[in-house]
Design a protein that fits this description.
The complex is a heterodimer of chains A (251) and B (161).
Chain A (H helix, E strand, L loop, with lengths): L1 H24 L10 H12 L9 H9 L1 H22 L15 H23 L8 H19 L2 H5 L4 H20 L18 E2 L2 E2 L3 H25 L2 H8 L5
Antiparallel strand pairs in A: 1-2
Helix pairs in contact in A: 3-4, 3-9, 4-8, 4-9, 5-6, 6-9, 8-9
Chain B lengths: L1 H18 L4 H22 L3 H5 L1 H32 L5 E6 L5 H13 L3 E7 L2 E6 L7 H8 L1 H11 L1
Classes of the chains: A mainly alpha (251), B mainly alpha (161).
Amino acid sequence: MGRRLLGLVFVYSLALALALVVYATGSLQPPHEIKRLGVFYVEETFFGNMTAMSPEAVTAIVWDYRGLDTVYETAVFFLAVVAGLAVFRVSKTPPLKRGVGLTEISRTSTKIVAALIVVVSASIALHGHLTPGGGFQGGSTLAIAPLLVIPIFSYYALLARRLTPGLLVTLRGLALTAIGLVALLPVFKGLEVVTNIRFYPAYILGQLVSGSLLLYNSSEYIAVASGFAAVFLYLSFEEEFHEEERGEDHE
Amino acid sequence: MFREVLVTLWLFLFYIVYTGSTTPYDIATGLVVAALVGVPASRVLVSDERKLLDVKRYIHLFYYALKYMTVIEFKAHMDVVKRVFTMRLNPGIVKIPVYAKSRYGRLLIAVSITNTPGTVVVDERDGWFYVNWIDVASTKPEEARLAISAEFEDYAFKIFE
């Protein structure tokens, strides 16, 4: 007991000493003044006139100031997913079998980790207009959950829950339609396409939502996650299934 | 019903810790996300609701987490640090029995073994763990178990069985 206590005291004093050194040298303290470049960006995207009302300059630029560019990027990714489906000619899904998967330990930890991944990815996407992150980053994070499930449980686990490439591509199509609608809705009120703050509210119940940026980020989150998940899924189908789909012989 | 609420609360807490902020926006979005994930996930994650209500299990879990992160990890690290200098290595893979039946209990034992330097669970088969051990003191399964996982298993029983 005495030695254990001694060990504990040693560990804590070491940690305390380290913390004190780090604090005393000031390496953990953030700078008190914002650099001029930072001030310029925050004024242009949040504090000044005619801004996107987002303190996160990257999101303001990506979805507002150069929104059309982002629409093309999203379209390119969508075409890549669809082209993949066309090349692999996935129109059906393999018949359901029982997958082997990995050990019970991997399965149990994956169940916990997958739930946490979904929560973290949602936080990244929903705070895209406030802190670094956004729809694409959140969606890519969310896609890790099916990517983990495929090797650890086998892809049948996803197919058994009706998560097929077809459904995921449909989901992606719907999310992209939502992005298009958010961009087009201001037109019906006589405003320009992709109008942000003049049409969408910057605050809802006193909380900053940065107008259309939150809507774009949420839709992009679903679009990117379902797109990546569809790709992961059809890339993991066995070659035999793809050959059967194409009607090729094994000779 | 209870497990849905509790899993949702845990996920909400995780959301808030990850986000690092507690504005009404964070709380509102956190509750919605946690409920959307927690309700379906609770059916996969929790099979015995009564264990969730047992306060004693939480106390054991908290005590074990504290002890593991301080005393057990420290001892294991110091052992490996000593071996780095003395190079007294006798590595090998041993087979140890695991008596815990619950999946979380077995997971706790496996990650406890792997997370301490010097031992790694490399496979699990028919109730046995195969552990890569930096200093094989015994190849007899029971003796190896006593040296590697007996303490972890005691807590696994108290927390999850």
